User: What shape does this take?
Amino acid sequence: MEGLFSGMEPLPEKVSSGEVISHKALSAKEQSNKIFSGEVQTARRPASGELQGKSASAHKGVPGEFAFSEDLSRNAAIFCSDERFIDASITFLKNSLKLKKFDLIVTAGGPAFITADVPALMGNLKILKEEHDISTIVLISHEDCKYYCRKYVNTGRSEILKYQQKDLQNAKGKLLKLYPGIKLEIYFARIAGKQIIFEKQS
Ligand SMILES: [Zn+2]
Assistant: This one.
């Protein structure tokens, strides 16, 4: 896997195959501070007849303006829409993999759509690949994914895990074939008590 991410900022040494990266999800307050530059105030509902735009812009303390940049990172990440893993996944990509920015496809089952070859989502990925010249893709699958729980009913968690890991491998192979030269990494997000641990898959 060495040199896989050569076209981007290098991965930190500690993120090597087989090594686990522990992540403690940020609190809602911490997240809030990261996303918004100022303290968030409770917004009041606009009174009947009041202009929505005027109300929003005049409401100090609720930021509505953010910096915009045309710069493209050429990175993309695909993971599940399960809210329990979203903050952790984004922080993992930014802090552990040192990806400052990335396009996202966040959908139930995450990269499972690649193995399942869901046309609409494969089409979306193609658009990102071509329009944003994507050169690096990170796939993350996670434990206790309801997409897989529904797909494999009455199946034990360890058995489902095997299916997920097989799907990740399959998705990796498929994307490498579809987009030759792309840099691709796959991870599995495991639940360990109150923590989420991202394990790199080979
Ligand atoms: Zn899921």
Summary: The longest helix spans residues 157-178. The pocket of zinc ion is lined by residues 80, 82, 109, 142, 145-147 (CB under 6 Å). The beta strands are 20-23, 75-79, 103-106, 136-142, 183-192, 195-201.
